[in-house]
Design brief:
Strand order of the largest sheet: 3-6-5-4
Oligomer: single chain
Strand content: under 5%
Number of strands: 8
Distance between the termini: 152 Å
């Protein structure tokens, strides 16, 4: 057996599940009905009237109600078919008869109602039940016509509650769809009457009645989305409206008690009363009866209904009843108007119950009807006009409850129907929200708070602000609602001379909701690319601008931006116009908003559609007698729509747009234009436009008379009518017409001095009429989606006030949840600014935030670290600043300076990781040293340069922490408290969350402009170095900034060209301004070397620039250079070893070798410098034509240097000598190998031997002799492969060999402190052997030269001098022995080669004579020894025969 599933009576609307376990067992249903019959009979028997029997003669008869119940009891168990096949009327009718009977008392009626309710709540009735329509109609008719005797107030309330219960069950039943429009309206009407009557009853009945009314409305409008649009034609039919067919609702009737003749009371309607109110003044006396029959329902009028009208009321309920119900609910709001009580002036005792109840029902209907309402024009029209008009009035109610409900309704309407309510929404925000939310308009704090809450709710709708901007701010005929709302939120968040309140936080929530909505839209792809600024190239009537497709963003985005631009220019033009009308019009002509030649229509539209114009100036212009002004006035009048409008309403609208001039002629011209336009559109009962003119004049006069305090005797209605006799073409106007005009003017003044546009206007009836007319012509509502089409324009408007507002709240806030709200706002602002490339906004945000970190303030506390740890606001601001820097650094410009100020402050407090900048650079580019297993090249670690560590107060936060924990023996300190330890821990966590090092390690991802600004900010923060001493703190700051600058330079090797100039200039300033060693110049020099080490492999195009920068090292002050020379050399050595292959230009090598050469005479640096030189010159691997001469010269300086061991000088000489092996290779042709021309090769060789010559003069014997040996190798054996030209050899003799011999001889004689030179005799011997050997080797090549004689005489001359040489005043025996022997060998070779002969072809006899002239001075015996006597005689004869023409010149050359 199925279980009984009862629906809850008047709980929230929830239809029973379709698959419920209903009572399919017919026996169970029969038992249930039987029990209900028994219950009714039992209650009836308790009453004396029903307990006895009616006697009629001898028969005993029971009352018909009891008979029908008993008859039903007999039948129910005999039904064999399913209950669905049995007409429900059979088993419902006995109960309904009891309900209808006016003889039954309240207890009996209540039990019968309970029985019906029980049947309805089971699934006994559904659409498959036989005759279900008749049954449902019978139930509704019976219950709404319920009559009963009132025995006591309590039982009466019970019956009323059960009536509500049954009616609600009818609407919730599955069979409710068979009810027609009339029945639904009757149900609602009945329930409303119970609500009305419950005002005099108990609290429980009142609450249940109102709840039931809400549930009914929800049931009905829940059905709206399912109603097909096909029902609409019946609603728009030509027959009488459903309202007239159903007699309407009895909203205007009060209840009263009528005593019947037999003493039983029945409650019926009195005649319509002038006063309206839910609370009835009638009292219910004991013994009276309640009559809830609907006397105004379809009755007598039904006989007049046509067939089509009957269809409206008998078809299943749908739009007709919904329209009627909704209209009824809207009309409930007119109570205030009927009672003559305006919402703005309503007293405290005003009963807010009526409108609040009505508004609640309306809100439920809109919530459930939703967007389906727009498919039904009548419902939509009610919302657009009547409902919204009432909402505008009640929006200004003093009651917060009413205002809150109004705002909820408008929010629902926005959500579902905003496309249809463009101007209504504008009016609501302008005339309600913006007026109430500001105290200067007289609103109470409660009103302000409710209005602000409503505004915040709207702001939380993701597209609200974007749609307000697109539809209203970008429409020249509408207010800038978005801008006004944004300004309101910003100003309302400002605590001005007062503590932070809930209102400020509320406004902040709304502001941040708008900002976060924009931030959320950033990630969504936008098909519309960023558009360039709008310009107008030519004149186009601005009031005719249209959009091709309001649904396609590709069309409407550009359209609204263009329209906004026009509106902005119009506002600027209005400002110019207000100062000088002529210049204002000229400005608009220059911007192509007005034609070059003004026409009346364009000027008229400018006056009509531009906000902010001085209405006095507009009135004077329009009233001017100038022909152009008159035509403008005519065109101005044509912009108004007076179709079917009352004259006073039209006049009000016309005169609101300007101030009526004071001169009578101007007034006449203005009113003539108005009258002509009005008569053209609304002639109605006016005979001609003169009648309109005269009546308009009369209304102006009446207005002045009634509302001017100086007029003591006021015009009466009769006076006004009499003044307007026979003005309508000689006839009188209808009296009712004039009376209506008279009272309208008396009640509501025509303001001839309109507002100048400041503030927010009040919605008047005439303005509402105008708004409804405009709404039919306004541009379609543009719906925005989740893409950021206009966010950049919107954000540019509100960014400044928003940042200021959030900052002020953040400054005044004391609670952490407010801090988090502000931080969310800051991050959203940063995200939007970055997305839309609004760098200035982001900079402003950073500047504002940095102030809250407390890091920029001069520290007034003893322990700033502890104070920072205890300051939640400062820590949150610090994290936010660095979060923005890390996330959105691409778009920070000048804000970097403030960020660096914060970093520097943290650095000074010791709160940064010990080597944040150096680590950032070191980790960015790991490199390896292929050399000797030394530390990584380019990582200037403390192990390399211990002195580089900058003097800091402590090494990072842990250093500070350890200081706190340590005990100073000299100055005992107490142990830190738990609070101090916790503060330090919080500080540590804050700094960790900031990820400050990421700013620099990730700088390679920064955009170029931001990166450049960051570098400039670092230079700025470091300050310009000053000559002389600076404070340790300033130097520490400069060092730290330089570290960071170097870090970003190293992290941006691919963009070093962008940064290099600034980095170089900063380092150059430091180097050139430093005169004493210090951490700053140390960091500058080694940072420069480090940059070169890192970047040379990657930036060949910048190699020369990088290496040239190292010349700064050469410009160091001598004291500075001496202090760091060793470390500099080590770095140069690493640079060379790592990058020798990347240095290709002579200029670069000149810098390197210059640095190495300097170290040759430095005791500590020379070893590293020589190691670098060896790396370059060993095996000639890294030698090239570009660096050969430079390297040789550097090696010579190391060879000459006496600061190192002699072995190093010898090794330097070997390097020089071995380098000659590179020269032959460079002559060969190769694709990749370096090449040099023959002349270049010879020049290199000559420079090599010249260098060796200089070392041959060294004081140290070993070095001197080794230099001679090296020179000999370079001029003999090793020189053969070079194939030098004779000219080069002659240069070698003149510049190298002869010069060396002469210099050595001079030293030997004591010309250069010869006492310092040991064993010069041996050196002279080696030198003489070298000359002889080279001469003999080159004899075949040089002897044919014309200059050979000169060369030979030079050799002889040196031999002669060396023969006579004295070392320390003593003759050198070795030389005296050696020279003749060498000379003899030379003479033999020359003789054998035919070079020396009496008839020599080269030198002639002169060479012979001169030779023996010198030889005889050395050793006279040599001639006879080399040339025996017979040969001499032959030589003499030949000499006599031929002569000696070259003798004189030879002598001159040899001497």
């Amino acid at each position: 057996m199925g279980r009984l599933k009862l629906q809850p009576g008047i709980n929230a609307i929830e239809e029973e599940p379709g698959d419920c376990d209903c009572m399919s067992n017919k026996g169970a249903l029969a038992c249930m009905v039987n029990s209900e019959v028994g219950a009714v009979l039992a209650v009836m028997r308790r009453n004396v009237r029903w307990g006895g029997r009616y006697m009629a003669g001898d028969d005993q008869l029971e009352h018909s109600l009891i008979q029908s119940l008993k008859a039903l009891r007999k039948q129910i168990f005999s039904w064999e078919h399913q209950w669905q096949s049995i007409s429900p009327t059979i088993y419902l009718q006995p109960f309904l008869d009891v309900i209808r009977s006016d003889e039954t008392g309240a207890p009996i009626t209540g039990v019968a109602l309970t029985s019906v309710y029980k049947i309805l709540t089971l699934d006994m009735l559904d659409l498959n039940t036989v005759n279900v329509e008749d049954a449902m109609h019978s139930v509704v008719d019976a219950v709404t016509s319920c009559r009963f005797e009132v025995t006591d107030p309590a039982s009466e309330e019970v019956v009323l509650m059960k009536i509500l219960q049954v009616l609600l069950a009818c609407m919730k039943s599955k069979a409710s769809v068979v009810l027609n429009n009339q029945h639904v309206c009757t149900i609602v009407n009945t329930c409303f009457r119970v609500v009305h009557q419950a005002g005099t009853k108990g609290e429980l009945l009142q609450r249940i009645a109102r709840h039931t009314m809400h549930e009914l409305v929800r049931c009905i409008f829940l059905h709206l989305p399912d109603v097909h649009h096909t029902e609409q034609p019946s609603v728009n039919g030509s027959g009488p409206s459903i309202r007239s067919e159903m007699g309407g609702f009895d909203k205007d009737h009060a209840f009263g008690v009528r005593q019947s003749d037999n003493g039983n009371g029945s409650l019926e309607y009195d005649a319509p009363s002038a006063s309206v109110g839910l609370a009835s003044n009638a009292s219910m006396s004991t013994g009276s009866a309640a009559n809830l029959a609907d006397e105004n329902a379809l009755g007598d009028a039904s006989s007049k209904d046509t067939t089509s009208d009957m269809h409206l009321t008998t078809e299943p309920y749908g739009i007709p009843c919904m329209v009627e119900i909704f209209h009824f609910l809207c009309s409930l709001l007119n109570i205030v108007e009927h009672s003559g009580m305006g919402p703005r002036s309503n007293p405290i005792e005003f009963d807010e119950d009526v409108p609040l109840f009505a508004l609640g029902l309306i809100n439920s209907a809109i919530e459930l009807g939703g967007s389906s309402i727009r498919q039904h024009p009548k419902l939509l029209a009610l919302i657009q006009d009547e409902l919204f008009s009432n909402l505008m009035q009640f929006g200004l109610s003093m009651s917060p409850l009413i205002l809150s409900m109004v705002c909820s309704i408008v929010l629902n309407l926005y959500h579902h129907l905003r496309v249809e309510l463009k101007l209504q929404l504008e009016a609501f925000f302008s005339c309600v929200i913006l007026r109430l939310a500001q105290s200067r308009h007289g609103a109470s704090y409660q009103q302000q708070e409710v209005a602000m809450e409503a505004l915040v709710d709207f702001c939380r709708q993701k597209t609200f602000m974007a749609e307000m901007y697109a539809n209203l701010d970008c429409d020249i005929t509408c207010r800038n609602v978005f801008e006004d709302l944004a300004n309101l939120l910003s100003k309302s968040a400002f605590p001005v001379n007062c503590p932070l309140s809930a209102m400020h936080i509320l406004a902040l929530d709304g502001l941040i909701a708008v900002i976060q909505g924009m931030a959320e839209r950033i990630g969504n792809a936008s098909p519309v690319t960023e558009q360039a600024s709008v310009t107008l190239e030519e004149y186009t009537p601005f009031w005719t601008v249209k959009c091709e497709n309001y649904a396609d963003p590709n069309h409407w985005v550009g359209f609204v931006r263009r329209r906004k631009y026009i509106k902005r220019i119009l506002m600027i033009g209005a400002d110019h116009f207000n100062r000088d009308p002529k210049k204002g019009l000229e400005y608009l002509q220059g911007t192509h908003l007005l034609p070059d030649k003004l026409d009346p229509q364009s000027v008229a539209c400018f006056f009509r559609y531009t906000a902010g114009l001085d209405k006095n100036l507009v009135g004077d212009f329009l009233g001017n007698h100038d022909d152009f002004c008159v035509r403008v006035l005519e065109e101005f009048a044509k912009t108004f729509d007076f179709q079917d409008m009352n004259l006073d309403t039209a006049l009000r609208l016309f005169l609101e747009t300007f101030r009526l001039p004071g001169e009578s002629q101007k007034i006449q011209r203005v009113l003539e234009a108005f009258s002509g336009r009005y008569y053209e559109q609304s002639p109605q009962i006016l005979a001609n436009k003169d009648a309109a003119l005269l009546l308009s004049y009369s209304l102006i006069m009446l207005n002045t008379d009634q509302h001017n305090v100086q007029v003591k005797k006021k015009m009466t209605e009769e006076d006004f009518i009499r003044n307007n006799r026979r003005i309508n073409g000689g006839n009188d106007l209808p009296r009712d017409f004039l009376t209506e005009l008279y009272h309208s003017i008396c009640k509501n003044e025509i303001r001839t001095i309109p507002d100048q546009g400041a503030g927010f206007p009040e919605m008047t009836p005439s303005r509402w009429i105008d708004l409804m007319r405009k709404s039919r012509k306004t541009a379609p509502f543009i719906t925005c989606d989740s893409r950021a089409f206009l966010d950049r324009d919107m954000f540019a408007i509100m960014s400044g006030p928003t940042i200021a507002a959030i900052s002020v709240v953040f400054d005044h806030a004391e609670h952490e949840n407010v801090f988090h709200t502000c931080v969310d706002g800051f991050l959203a602002v940063a995200k939007i600014s970055a997305c839309h490339h609004l760098e200035d906004v982001l900079d402003d945000l950073v500047v504002s935030l940095c102030k809250f970190t407390t890091l920029l303030n001069p520290s007034l506390v003893e322990e700033p670290v502890l104070a920072f740890g205890d300051d939640t606001k400062a820590r949150m601001a610090t994290i936010t600043v660095f979060t923005i820097a890390n996330r959105f650094g691409d778009y920070i410009r000048t804000g970097w300076r403030n960020i660096l100020d914060c970093i520097l402050r943290l650095h000074k407090l010791g709160l940064l990781p010990a080597r944040v900048a150096s680590d950032a650079a070191d980790d960015s580019e790991p490199s390896t040293d292929p050399g000797h297993g030394k530390p990584v090249a380019g990582t200037l670690s403390a192990s390399h340069i211990p002195a580089m560590a900058t003097p800091r107060r402590s090494s990072g936060l842990m250093g500070r922490f350890s200081q706190l924990l340590s005990l100073d023996t000299e100055e005992p300190r107490s142990q830190p408290t738990e609070q101090q330890l916790a503060a330090h821990q919080r500080t540590l966590q804050t700094i960790q969350k900031c990820h400050i090092d990421s700013i620099f390690t990730e700088s390679k991802f920064l955009q170029a402009d931001s990166l450049l600004q960051l570098a400039r900010a670092l230079v700025w923060a470091a300050g310009r170095p000053q000559k002389g001493s600076s404070s340790p703190e300033d130097e520490d700051t400069a060092v730290f900034c330089l570290e960071l600058l170097i870090a970003i330079a190293l992290n941006n090797r691919d963009r070093i060209g962008l940064l290099w100039q600034g980095v170089y200039e900063h380092i150059a300033n430091i180097v050139q301004s430093t005169v004493m060693p210090g951490a700053l110049v140390e960091k500058a020099v080694f940072g420069l070397l480090r940059i070169c080490q890192r970047l040379l492999p990657y930036k060949e195009n910048l190699a020369d620039e990088l290496l040239r920068s190292l010349q700064l090292v050469l410009k160091l002050d001598a004291r500075v250079a001496d202090a760091y020379c060793e470390h500099i050399t080590q770095e140069v050595m690493r640079l060379v070893k790592a990058n020798a292959t990347h240095i290709r230009s002579p200029m670069g090598w000149r810098t390197i070798t210059s640095l190495l050469s300097i170290t040759a005479r430095h005791p500590e640096a020379s070893e590293a410098g020589f190691e670098a030189l060896m790396f370059i010159m060993s095996d000639g691997v890294h030698l090239s034509p570009a660096n050969y001469i430079l390297s040789v010269d550097a090696a010579r300086q190391f060879a000459e240097s006496r600061v190192g061991p002699t072995e190093r000088s010898v090794r330097a000489l070997d390097l020089m000598a071995e380098s000659i092996m590179c020269l032959p290779r460079w002559k060969e042709v190769g694709e990749d190998a370096p090449r040099a021309s023959s002349q270049e090769i010879e020049d290199m060789w000559l420079r090599l031997v010249q260098g060796l010559r200089k070392v041959c003069l060294d004081q140290r014997e070993e070095v001197r002799n080794h230099a001679l040996a090296s020179l000999q190798r370079c001029t003999t054996t090793n020189a053969e492969a070079i194939r030098l030209s004779p000219a080069s050899w002659l240069q070698c003799f003149d510049l190298v060999i002869f010069t060396m011999l002469d210099d050595l001889l001079e030293i030997a004689h004591g010309g250069h402190s010869g006492k310092d030179y040991r064993n010069m005799e041996g050196t002279l011997v080696h030198a003489m052997k070298l000359m002889s050997k080279v001469f003999l080797q080159l004899l075949p090549e040089l002897s044919p030269l014309t200059s050979f004689c000169k060369l030979w005489l030079g050799v002889l001359g040196r031999m002669e001098k060396y023969t006579k040489a004295k070392v320390r005043g003593k003759k050198c025996e070795k030389l005296q022995e050696l020279v003749p022997e060498l000379l003899k060998n030379t003479l033999y070779v020359m003789k054998n080669r035919g070079v020396l002969a009496r008839t020599n072809a080269i030198g002639g006899d002169g060479l012979w004579e001169l030779t023996w002239l010198h030889v005889n001075n050395i050793d006279p015996s040599l001639q006879s020894e080399v040339f025996p006597d017979q040969e001499l005689e032959q030589q003499a004869r030949k000499e006599n025969e031929m002569g000696s023409p070259l003798l004189q010149t030879a002598v001159e050359g040899g001497t």
